[in-house]
Amino acid sequence: MLVGASLNEDIGIPGFARIYVAVMKDPTFEPRIIKGGNKLLSIGSGSGVEIYKKEIEDLSDTSDISLMKGEVGMPSGYGFMLSHCISDVIMKNPQEGISKHLHIAFVRRGQYSLQNNDVTIHCPKGEKIEVKMPPVARGSSEFLD
């Protein structure tokens, strides 16, 4: 999945860039170009898990603007809130063969940020549970090793 912000096309609000997404899936990896960043897209097997699909559909309900409040005073706050909700449902409903680790990309005109969903869970009895993404290949040579 590739994501980019248009340099010269806005979404109708000056300064808010049109987002384009290219999804490439096995076996052909032919790119499917989607205009707009508000579509439900996936590249993995999690798209077949009903509880995951329901959560994403619920979060995509444009009549509920509660997650948009995350943008107030925090650019990409909406995306941060969205990724937290998705991480939460994945961790509470683990599925065989589906990782609880996510790569989270925030894309704006002139800005790009790649993060993960690492978290420290503080339990009632004082113990901590660290959920940390394992090392990820940073290029083809590391991937092939």
Which stretches are poorly predicted, pLDDT < 50 over at least 5 residues? Answer: none
The strand line-up of the biggest sheet is: 1-2-3
What's the total helix number?
Answer: 3
Number of domains: 2
Strand content: 25-35%
Radius of gyration: 17 Å
From the N-terminal CA to the C-terminal CA, the straight-line distance is: 23 Å
Helix amount, in percent? 10-25%
Mean pLDDT: 86
| Helix/strand order | EEEHHEEEEH
Structural category is alpha+beta
Number of strands: 7
**What is the overall silhouette?**
globular
Largest sheet: 3 strands, antiparallel
Could you explain the architecture of this structure?
This protein has 145 residues and is an alpha+beta fold. It has 2 domains: 43 residues, no CATH class; 101 residues, no CATH class. Helix content is 21%, strand content 28%. It is built from 3 helices and 7 strands. The protein has a 3-stranded antiparallel sheet, with no helix packed on it. The chain has a two-stranded antiparallel sheet with strand order 4-5. The two termini are 23 Å apart.
Question: What are its keywords?
Answer:
two-stranded antiparallel sheet; 3 helices; 7 strands; three-stranded antiparallel beta sheet; 2 domains; single chain; 145 residues; alpha+beta
SSE topology sketch:
Layout lengths: L1 E9 L6 E7 L8 E4 L14 H10 L17 H16 L10 E6 L2 E6 L2 E4 L5 E4 L8 H5 L1
Antiparallel strand pairs: 1-2, 2-3, 4-5, 6-7
Compact summary:
The chain is an alpha+beta fold. It has 2 domains: 1-43, no CATH class; 44-144, no CATH class. The protein has 3 helices and 7 strands.
